[in-house]
Amino acid sequence: MSAGATYSTARIATGPVLFISGQTPADPDGSTPSDVEEQTRLVLAKIQDVLVEHGCGWGDVVKVTYYLRDIADLDVVRTVIRDVVPEPRPAATLAQVSAFVDPSFAVEVDAVADLGNRP
């Protein structure tokens, strides 16, 4: 993997496995930040909250899927990933989508965590 990569080529899960549904950039009040960086940080924070709720953290995440409405936002999203997600980073898939359920969304992320490493 190259320096600064935002993903690992492969990760092994021993299970049990936690599947986190796609998290959107909607705030609890229903508003959505207009900035892609803020949206990405909010989405990753929501995933972090689910991880903590299940007694784990980013180090347990083995797979993520990033959905972007505009692939031109990829550099911004990668910068946020490098800031938030520690190494070893999860294996990842990136997909550009034509639309989200809310047209103000620019990014959505789902995740899979390996709970087998918990004490």
From TrEMBL:
Molecular function GO labels: deaminase activity
GO cellular component, one term: cytosol
InterPro entries, per the entry: RutC-like_sf (IPR035959), YjgF/YER057c/UK114 (IPR006175)
Gene3D superfamilies: RutC-like (3.30.1330.40)
Family under the similarity heading: Belongs to the RutC family.
PANTHER family recorded: 2-IMINOBUTANOATE/2-IMINOPROPANOATE DEAMINASE RIDA (PTHR11803), PROTEIN HMF1-RELATED (PTHR11803:SF58)
Protein name: Enamine deaminase RidA (YjgF/YER057c/UK114 family)
Organism: Saccharopolyspora hordei
Upper classification of the organism: Bacteria, Bacillati, Actinomycetota, Actinomycetes, Pseudonocardiales
